[in-house]
Design goal:
mainly alpha
């Protein structure tokens, strides 16, 4: 429970900064890897959950790599989004592959829905960047709640 409490506690200010400044600060993201990784490793050792830890590390790398490819290919994602994806992969991977898939898809669906609603209401222009972090965070939190914390 502690690793996911930490995740929720750090995602709230990250989302707020992304909404206000359209950036996800490395000063918050990078230490979160160490804190979340250390807490999940501790749980893995204490409860012999090595498979969960391995899945966490794999999904962390896979999501970060996938978002990096998207960032380089489209230019629409920033480095903060890539780092956030890895952090969310670390957390959601602990739970299950289903949690990773659910959290990722839900985050993107929330972002697309918000963007479409803002465009339809003419509150943003076509080329206005939309912060992705809050949507990814909300998708991940929902996945943790609905798929369980493992």
């Amino acid at each position: 429970m502690l690793p996911f409490s930490y995740l929720a506690a750090v995602l709230v200010p990250l989302a707020a900064v992304d909404l206000a400044e359209r950036r996800l600060p490395s000063a918050m993201l990078l230490p979160s890897y160490a804190i979340l990784g250390a807490s999940l490793t501790t749980v893995a050792v204490l409860d012999a959950r090595y498979e969960s830890l391995a899945r966490s590390l794999i999904t962390m790398a896979a999501l970060a790599a996938a978002y990096l490819v998207l960032a380089l290919a489209t230019g629409g994602l920033g480095a903060g989004d890539v780092k956030l994806a890895g952090l969310l992969g670390l957390a959601l991977g602990w739970i299950s592959w289903q949690a990773v898939l659910t959290g990722t898809i839900l985050g993107w669906l929330l972002a697309a829905t918000a963007r479409l609603a803002l465009r339809a209401s003419r509150r943003i222009e076509r080329d206005t960047p939309t912060p992705l972090g809050p949507h990814l965070a909300l998708g991940a939190i929902a996945a943790v709640i609905f798929t369980g914390m493992g």
